[in-house]
Backbone:
């Protein structure tokens, strides 16, 4: 006779077995008996029609958590629609339905009534997640994180969202809990599955733009399964060699790779057929596709959580197409496409024509002072007239100018939220080629570069000069962007330009870029508990804990900030590589978005904005900064809280013009607090306290 231990062991073994489904033909019979189409079943299972077909013809079998849900549905139908000659089972007593994984929640409230899932139509089908479950964080790779971003109307061409994260078992995790079954075992099969069956992609962001290509993110296990190396050996070129078997497979199947080859962000494409693009973007996690500085902690997350982070970013910003810098630049073009359809007056046909307000389709040579010595047009011209030097602040006040401030116990750092993004708001930039003028009258409304002497402008030495990144007073004529010269005029000084390179055609090119990123930034902060309705004390408290509220959304916030910084930086990308020779063209300068003048305009306005706030702070409070690094400024303070030294009216409201706390771009947050003696010690060593005010090993990047 079997012992109790043996019996329990046998029972445990049975419990560990996967649910058993009826034969494929029976699955199809039950669905048809219930009057449910394959499309409606696919929607309920958060899958594709082709996957349902595969279930019903025996080609593939579902995996968890979809397996248990599908079995529950089939069991329910089997009770209601028994096979011929089998009596229907008596109805079971009513019981409270058990909650199921969030993967199987119903559609958003914005979807049409006919899009109801089977779970809402048939009693035994998949039940909706219980109320409140959507706020729970994910606890495993098979369970996406609960909190979801507000979802726009679903484009019927892309029912499963913009992207998916493919794991080694063939599960492709999409947005909003979707899990697709991907049968691909090679990169070529993956590309074809993505374009034919996945339902992935995103609609264009502007009327005259292009739809976003689907993105497939590969985990380490998925990469190895597809024949890719776990680590990319070519760390300099960041690509597979052309003789690698996977590259050969791609080429043999008549697919193409872009010039950057098969690297961490590989684009595989064929020539478009009519209006239908044939292109898939791959991101390979084990090859560091997601830089930890821009996407903190994302590479170590479970696939479902990676899909959530990238999905929210894709919805609010753009489907990632490379680094956050690349995505920032691509977002500019997506929102301001270079062309639009125009009617040919002679033939009556629609043809491609220039889109007003864009940067066009061809690269533009910079004005001599706006470029750099290596640029071919400047190198071969022999230009010796100097260059524009509009960069972010890196300034430290001399210790000799401290006065009694070193008696204050604290040094408090304030950081402006996305200062470059705030500067891009309603920024007029040049859209046409630069034109040279001699002895022009200054006009603050015309973007361009001006050769002018600002050395006569005298300001309090406890403030940095607004005209140089070092904060040092100019010593003679130099090239400045329009906003810098306009600020000298705003301070009441006469400006008399000697020369200028100006642009006749102008426009607010960055406006849609600013608006989209500002909304993304504010909405993501709100998801982390930092909202506009908080008073200043509540804001400081919320910012102190916001990164711990939801690590996934905190990663999205970091990526948005990196997109701003990187996008502006990409406007003036330098030549790279050991083999480069001065005077030779390089890839970045051959694109229309290589525009150093636009980058200079953003940085000039950001630096002027910072100086204006510091000047107003001095007038309102008598406090002067100890140091500035880009958008971070350090002040001596009587307490660790900025509430004790920022200017407030008697009503308790912040006084406009100086630094103000808040969650929107251009307002400030607390960066860090240290002892005043600590700051003075760094200043005596010639170091910048703003670089280290955050504490720990944190060091701010130059430029944002």
Residues:
């Amino acid at each position: 006779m079997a012992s109790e231990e043996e019996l329990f062991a046998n029972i445990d073994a049975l419990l560990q077995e996967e649910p058993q489904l009826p034969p494929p033909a029976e699955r199809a019979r039950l669905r048809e008996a219930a009057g449910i189409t394959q499309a409606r079943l696919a929607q309920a299972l958060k899958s594709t029609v082709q996957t349902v077909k595969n279930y019903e013809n025996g080609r593939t079998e579902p995996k968890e958590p979809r397996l248990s849900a599908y079995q529950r549905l089939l069991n329910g139908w089997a009770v209601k629609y028994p096979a011929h000659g089998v009596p229907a089972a008596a109805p079971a007593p009513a019981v409270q339905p058990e909650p199921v994984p969030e993967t199987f929640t119903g559609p958003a409230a914005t979807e049409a009534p006919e899009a109801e899932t089977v779970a809402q139509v048939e009693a035994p089908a998949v039940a909706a997640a219980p109320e409140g479950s959507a706020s729970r964080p994910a606890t495993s790779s098979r369970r996406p994180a609960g909190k979801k971003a507000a979802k726009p109307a679903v484009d019927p061409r892309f029912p499963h969202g913009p992207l998916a994260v493919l794991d080694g078992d063939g599960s492709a995790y999409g947005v909003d809990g979707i899990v697709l079954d991907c049968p691909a075992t090679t990169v070529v099969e993956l590309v074809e599955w993505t374009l034919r069956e996945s339902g992935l992609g995103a609609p264009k962001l502007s009327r005259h733009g292009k739809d976003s290509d689907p993105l497939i993110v590969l985990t380490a296990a998925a990469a190895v399964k597809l024949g890719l190396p776990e680590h990319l050996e070519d760390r300099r070129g960041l690509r597979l060699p052309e003789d690698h078997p996977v590259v050969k497979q791609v080429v043999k199947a008549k697919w193409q790779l872009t010039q950057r080859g098969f690297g961490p962000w590989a684009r595989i494409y064929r020539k478009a057929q009519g209006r239908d693009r044939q292109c898939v973007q791959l991101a390979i996690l084990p090859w560091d596709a997601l830089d930890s500085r821009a996407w903190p902690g994302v590479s170590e997350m479970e696939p479902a959580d990676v899909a959530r982070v990238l999905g929210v970013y894709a919805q609010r910003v753009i489907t990632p197409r490379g680094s956050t810098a690349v995505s920032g630049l691509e977002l500019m073009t997506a929102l301001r496409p270079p062309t639009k359809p125009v009617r040919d007056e002679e033939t009556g046909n629609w043809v491609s024509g220039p889109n007003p307000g864009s940067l066009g389709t061809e690269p533009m040579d910079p004005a001599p002072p706006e470029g750099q010595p290596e640029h071919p047009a400047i190198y071969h011209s022999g230009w010796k007239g100097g260059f524009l030097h509009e960069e972010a602040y890196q300034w430290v006040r001399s210790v000799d100018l401290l006065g009694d401030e070193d008696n204050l116990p604290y040094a408090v750092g304030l950081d402006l939220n996305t200062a470059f993004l705030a500067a891009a708001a309603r920024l007029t930039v040049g859209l046409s080629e630069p034109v040279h003028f001699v002895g022009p009258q200054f006009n603050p409304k015309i973007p361009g570069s001006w050769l002018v002497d600002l050395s006569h402008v005298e300001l309090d030495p406890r403030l940095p000069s607004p005209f140089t990144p070092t904060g040092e007073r100019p010593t003679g004529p130099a090239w400045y962007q329009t906003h810098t010269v306009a600020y000298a005029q705003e301070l009441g000084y006469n400006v008399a330009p000697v020369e200028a390179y100006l642009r006749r055609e102008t426009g607010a090119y960055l406006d849609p870029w600013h608006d989209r990123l500002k909304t993304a930034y504010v909405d993501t902060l709100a998801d982390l508990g930092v909202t506009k309705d908080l008073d200043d004390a509540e804001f400081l408290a919320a910012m102190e804990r916001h990164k711990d509220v939801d690590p996934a959304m905190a990663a999205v916030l970091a990526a948005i900030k990196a997109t701003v910084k990187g996008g502006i930086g990409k406007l003036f990308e330098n030549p790279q590589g050991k083999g480069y020779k001065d005077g030779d063209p390089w890839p970045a300068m051959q694109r229309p978005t290589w525009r150093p003048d636009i980058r200079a305009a953003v940085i000039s306005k950001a630096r002027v904005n910072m100086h204006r706030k510091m000047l107003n702070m001095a007038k309102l409070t008598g406090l002067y900064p100890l140091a500035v690094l880009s958008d971070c400024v350090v002040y001596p303070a009587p307490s660790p809280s900025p509430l004790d030294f920022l200017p407030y009216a008697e009503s308790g409201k912040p006084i406009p013009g100086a630094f103000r706390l808040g969650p929107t771009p251009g307002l400030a947050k607390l960066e860090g607090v240290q002892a005043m003696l600590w700051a003075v010690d760094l200043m005596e060593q010639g170091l910048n306290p703003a670089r280290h005010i955050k504490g720990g090993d944190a060091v701010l990047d130059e430029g944002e």
